[in-house]
């Protein structure tokens, strides 16, 4: 804060006390502005929530893909260590022809390859447009809101200065009128020097008041007009932004589906048949039962 700003803050602090204790203090009220400010505050709150939610959406989506990739890596590790250069599992044994590839890779390897490709090719092509056409405009909108919020705060300070000077002007005017009445009616000639000083002070406060009135009324009027225009324009930004949000998601999930269905990923016929006949759970229970009945497990008990 500059020295000038510091002095203004100190003066306003003292003026706040005077305004609260003065019996003749008048506080300006503009219901029209108050209604616009209330609408803007609600809009600003929703925009802040939207910005937070969108950032969280992007982060969670990337985290979800990363977690899914790690999960499949772990599952695939049962068949061997996945080599991203070979695009296959291997046993960690080097032969004359290179690392020994595990021929029994299973479905996990194909799924891992697909996820790896999605992460490297599909996601960057879609998440970047999502950031540019959806997330960034919302962040920009929030920054515009912050500018307006600062102007509203400034308007509040200028309104307070106006009210303080108006109260001070009214007080000095009443004192000057009382002195003038005393001189003209009662004949208190000795009070003429006092009246002269009072009128000089009154003139100075009038000048300050006129400046404060101009600054406050100008800012107040512009804000009322421009807040209305600003809130009217919000749909011109939000509508295409969310249209883009929906379309990008449709393309994203469509591309993911195409990648999964167009790959060589397949489940053996027996598993598919058992799944369709609701027998897959029974087969899994049977396998788990066999594992449970192993002598080694029973010995541990």
TrEMBL record:
Q: Which GO terms describe its cellular component?
A: actin cortical patch; mating projection tip; medial cortex; Rvs161p-Rvs167p complex
UniProt superkingdom: Eukaryota
Query: Which PROSITE patterns does the protein's record reference?
Result: BAR
Q: Where in the cell is it found?
A: Cytoplasm, Cytoskeleton
GO annotation terms (biological process): actin cortical patch localization; endocytosis; plasma membrane tubulation
Key words of the record: Cytoplasm, Cytoskeleton
Question: Principal place where this protein is found?
Answer: cytoplasm
The Gene Ontology terms for molecular function here are:
lipid binding
For this protein, the record's InterPro entries field holds: AH/BAR_dom_sf, BAR_dom, BIN3/RVS161-like
Is Transcription regulation included in the keywords of this UniProt record? no
Q: What is this protein called?
A: DEBR0S3_07470g1_1
Q: Which organism is it from?
A: Dekkera bruxellensis
Gene assigned in the entry? hob3
């Amino acid at each position: 804060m500059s020295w000038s700003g510091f002095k203004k803050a100190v003066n306003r602090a003292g003026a706040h006390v005077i305004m609260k204790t003065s019996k003749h203090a008048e506080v300006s009220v503009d219901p029209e502005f108050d209604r616009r400010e209330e609408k803007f505050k609600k809009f600003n709150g929703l925009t802040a929530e939207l910005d937070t939610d969108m950032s969280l959406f992007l982060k969670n989506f990337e985290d979800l893909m990363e977690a899914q990739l790690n999960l499949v890596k772990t599952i695939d590790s049962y068949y061997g260590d996945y080599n991203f250069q070979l695009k296959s599992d291997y046993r960690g044994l080097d032969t004359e022809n290179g690392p020994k590839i595990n021929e029994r890779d299973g479905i996990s390897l194909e799924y891992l390859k697909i996820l790896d490709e999605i992460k490297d090719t599909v996601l960057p092509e879609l998440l970047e447009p999502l950031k540019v056409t959806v997330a960034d405009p919302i962040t920009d909108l929030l920054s515009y809101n912050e500018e307006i919020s600062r102007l509203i705060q400034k308007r509040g300070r200028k309104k307070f200065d106006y009210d303080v000077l108006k109260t001070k002007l009214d007080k000095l005017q009443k004192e000057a009128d009382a002195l003038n009445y005393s001189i003209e009616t009662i004949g208190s000639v000795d009070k003429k020097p006092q009246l002269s000083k009072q009128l000089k002070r009154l003139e100075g406060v009038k000048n300050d008041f006129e400046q404060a009135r101009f600054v406050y009324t100008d800012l107040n009027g512009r804000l009322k007009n421009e807040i209305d225009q600003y809130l009217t324009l919000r749909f011109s930004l939000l509508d295409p932004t969310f249209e883009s949000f929906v379309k990008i998601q449709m393309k994203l999930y469509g591309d993911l589906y195409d990648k999964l269905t167009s790959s060589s990923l397949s489940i053996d016929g027996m598993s598919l048949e058992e799944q369709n006949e609701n027998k897959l759970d029974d087969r899994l229970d049977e396998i788990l039962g066999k594992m449970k009945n192993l002598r080694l497990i029973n010995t541990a008990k």
